[in-house]
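Illustration: S-adenosyl-L-methionine-dependent methyltransferases superfamily protein.
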Amino acid sequence: MFSLRIWSQSLSFSLHRKTLFPFTVLSNTNVSRFASSSCCAVSFQKKENFSAHNDSPPSFFKDSPLSGVENDLVNYVFGKKKATEVAHLLWKHVVQKGDTVIDATCGNGYDTLAMLKLVADESGLGCVYGLDIQREAVGSTASLLNETVNEAEKGLVKLFNMCHSRMEEVVPINASVRLVAFNLGYLPGSDKTVTTKPETTILALEAAERILIRDGLISMVVYVGHSGGREELETVEAFAHRLSVDNWICCKFQMLNRPLAPVLVFLFKR
Ligand SMILES: C[S@@+](CC[C@H](N)C(=O)[O-])C[C@H]1O[C@@H](n2cnc3c(N)ncnc32)[C@H](O)[C@@H]1O
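Result:
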């Protein structure tokens, strides 16, 4: 059974099962940790007062950045949704038609395509910037778009064969960037030694931090099963820990008893 529980300083999800609920908040204040083996939580900084032990969702819940994806998160926890699917579902709640978004690791193009569907409409204002260090990946993304979208939609995508640490060189200075997404690791079906690296991932995150607008999102799927993956997760976490709690809500979703499962990190700018 899934229920909402309210503690005085935080909003929490809890599961009434003997399951560790593996959500950790990376922000540096108001972090709730639940020692009980039957519940663990994601928590947010309090926005308004409300009474403890109130069973109905508090009014601020509707404004929370994870509002609307509660069921998807539960499905992820129980292995019914993949990390990338959860990320796509969350993007739907953040990205609007006409927005500018960045796929920092376009790979085979599935994330680029998902973003394009979110920003494209008849206004023709939306824009997706896709970057990948491998020429082959950019080609693969272009092929997927050729097969699946119309010319007008294709015109909204700009692909670059370059390192994501240089994203500010291609995204116009006045662009209102709503989402920067990273799907780290290596290109599936390709050379597994070409992976994202902590030293360039951190530069890309710093660039994303600079260009993201308020109410925007840095979304990350981090793979820890390959060589260097855990170090990269540590780099991502260290970056998130440094972000001011006044301006960012940072959370991580990780399955504790599936140590190789991809980790989701969401950094909401407010
Ligand atoms: C897991 S794949 C991305 C999957 C992709 N988003 C999709 O939907 O198919 C990771 C990608 O990151 C790319 N990559 C590695 N280092 C990079 C860097 N410094 N800058 C940009 N892309 C990089 C790899 O070439 C690979 O295509």
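Reading the tokens back as a structure: The radius of gyration is 19 Å.
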